[in-house]
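agent: user wants the full assembly modeled, not chains individually. Plan: 1) parse entity lines 2) check alphabet per entity 3) run joint structure prediction 4) return tokens. Steps 1-2 passed, two entities, 702 residues total. Proceeding.
--- entities ---
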Amino acid sequence: MRLSDLPLRQPAYVDIIEWDRLSPSEGQRLREFGLCEGASVEALHHGGLFGRGPIACRVGRMTIAMRRNHAAAIAVRTGPEGGDA
Amino acid sequence: MSALPLVALVGNPNAGKSALFNALTGARQKLGNYPGVTVERKAGRLALADGRPVELVDLPGTYSLDPASPDEQVTRDVVMGRQAGERLPDALVIVVDAANLDNHLRFALELIALGLPTVVALNMVDLATRDGLELDAGVLARELGVPVIPTVAVRKRGLDHLKSELADVIGGAAAPLRAGGESADFDTLRAEARRIARAAIVRETPSRRLTAAVDRVALHPVLGLLLLLGLLFVMFQGVYAWSEAPIAMIEGLAEAASDAVAAALPDGIVRSFLVDGVINGVGSVVVFLPQILILFFFILMLEATGYMVRAAFLMDSLMARVGLSGRAFIPLLSSFACAVPGIMATRTISDPKDRLTTILIAPLMTCSARLPVYAVIIGAFIPARSVGPGIGLQGLVLFGLYVAGIVGALLVALVLRLTVTKGASGGFLMEMPKYQMPRPQDILIGLWQRAVIFLKRAGTIIFASTVILWLLLSFPRAPDAASQVDHSIAGRIAGGLNVVLEPIGFNRDISLALIPAMAAREVAVSALATVYSINAGDDEAKLERSLGERLKDQWPLPTALAFLAWFVFAPQCISTIAVTKRETNGWKWPMFMVFYLFALAYGAAGLTYWTATAAGL
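--- prediction returned ---
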């Protein structure tokens, strides 16, 4: 499942990040936000009146906002444990 | 530059760095700029525990030493001793958010590896506790190899301890041990940060987080938008409702000063200079200080509470439609106060085309310098009647002018993104900080700095333009019967300019006011005040009347409306042109901006005038 499709408030962890779908600077910023394979994530809010807006999600202990196309580059697995897969 | 030891405060954004800086230095701060870049340098003085004074500099927040914006580049260059105009710091205070150790420790490790004497401030420990997190600072200190002091900047907790540790590391060690050029790669640092964070966490209990609860409303697609609109409505209402009393007070003072001068001096050129030029001119601008401070109060509050990023989140889908990102909302909202800090705030936008577009439309946000102009014209020409329960016509017109600016900005952005700044949109990636109760002192310091900047402007640019205008209006002296304004140098210049402006309904006096208004928009008001003040001459009855009443006599309604429309797109004040030149590294974009704004302003004023005349107003 993609982070963009993850139901709200369902704990998951990052499986694979397709870095080549992100620009180098976006990739770097996401890394600095603590997004990496194995990180625990949870979608918190969908923005925009018609569901086309950005997604706010928790990554570790941080909350970050990103657009849907970025979230679509992140594959997640649902499950409570983050773990260092 | 002082030769005091330099201590740099550095850390991630949202680590509470600025609050710590304010708590350590108080109101004695010096704002400046790094040479060659427009990044603000914030410095202050601090006495260490042993009494030694040091200079503390607050570096822009960044996530790593791999900069993504000009601000972040300054941080990297300062800590590496490569920033022009700044010496290598004698020590670093690394600020980390206790509740976000995994992330902030990675950057801390990167900084510690630089080998400068370092103290870590484990900040916002109270919020971490609120989140059910208990940390062992001793374990952290042992793992990091530097002193770690738990602090709560907003409550001044841990500051003395921080100052005494800082005294120990400065001058204690000999030359800083440089850890060579090699630094660990990103993943190694992250793994290490994670290991240390886990070791330092004594207990972690899941707890209901306040932020998550508030965000359910604040980020809700419908409720959140209503909340945002409500906040903006209260903000603009507050600008008017709360400013009446202080404005009346300033007006009273100006009047008393005029009377005192008039009583003390004989009628003549000196008295005219002081009353018409200085007191009337500068006073008519200073009177807007309360409104400007109220506007800044709201903007500082929205930023300090952490709400501003939520607003950006809500606005992202709308901004995306005109090819911008939600991030642009923050500089644009600041531009309602003043385009200069607004344009400087675009530095946080990493995509160059997003940033350029945002800079180009920032002046279309109705800045506070336009308020004086709107307020005078609306007060004179729009009847103060109610058009619905609780809705006054004057307020409605003002609201309409703000909306016209916003709609204009969005349309211009759309056109720019399809033409001159064509390209893929940059996207939207932001950290959303936890909500925080702002410390009153932090807000007050921010307001104080804004007030000083405004009064300095009033005392320099606005004062000078008013005085020059008075001179140009007063000389050469007209023969007894002739009008002084017609006869003056300024009157003749304006007469020439009026050939261009007459078709859009502007009279000679407006042309005259527009010239000094390039220095600062609000000067248009003081210029009109000076013109009509000089025109009135010694006629006591005329002098008694307010500027609004005089305008009402002299201008037809379509002219007044055209004047308002002109100011919606008002061509640049010089400070905005200057900051645009600095931020875009050249004259190309500021020239483009001035040209397109002039064209829009001329078109809008013309359309308004012709329509209003045709409608028989």
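agent: reporting back. Residues 222-421+437-615 of chain B form one domain. The CA atoms of residues 37 and 582 of chain B lie 7 Å apart.
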